[in-house]
Amino acid sequence: MLIVVYFDKIIGPKAIASKPEDLIKNLKKExxxxxxxxxxxxxxxxxxxxxxxELRTANWIFRVPSSWARGxxxxxxxxxIIQKEIEIKEYQLEMKKFIDQIIKxxxxxxAFYIHNPSLMHKTEIQxxxxxxxxxxxxxxxxxSLKSVETAGRLIKLEDFQKNKIISVPKMMLINLKKLIKNxxxxxxxxxxxxxxxxxxxxxVTSKEINKLEIIFGVDMTPAIIKRISDIFSKYEISLVFTSxxxxxxxxxxxxxxxxxxxxxxxxxxxxEIYEIEGIIDIQTEKLST
Length: 289
What we know:
It is a single chain. The chain contains eight helices and eleven strands. It is of the alpha+beta class.
């Protein structure tokens, strides 16, 4: 959600445009006043402000040359109400693009008089406001579509081998927080896929994860996997991660990582899995924090 605030020389900061267009009317008066008041700081440039955990804004105060204002400058603020987790630099980048574009519009300052137009210049003011509104609409669509699904980082192999540490971007921690809920531990698993080493980070409740390595002497068919899944369901075991690997014809390994939330051991479950034709071995490993 976007708001454009203009510093009226008589009444002070005033919201004159928004996306959605009915945002100014529908926002709580207290909320709107809080946002508008940020222009009183007068400090140009980009900044963020958290009024509360529910009301966070990204803001940019800038100046527009004007033939109508005292001092020949209009003081303007563009504010974005942050509704989803996008890297702050993304807001900053898109807001800068918007500002760089609109300040190049000839006589842009006239748009900011839309709520108090003079009869002599009414047509010009409406025309400039329409241009500004069109640019604002484009920015709104861009920010509405933006979300961070991935975050990349390039490091030297030499540094990784030496330090054995991979730092993670802030967005990963933000997304992880959404997944954690009341879970206090993380299960981390890695495996090779083609030319890549894949790493999964999975929030879990237990302090202990059990790995089952089920070895097949026959092809690992969907029907067999379903029978195994049905057994896990019977014992109300929570599957954390599964992986099927066929190393050669008629020799497959099905790895399952589980949380034991409702039973104390895996012996009865293993005995039932052994009854499935084609299972030749089940090996287990216990992982603890």
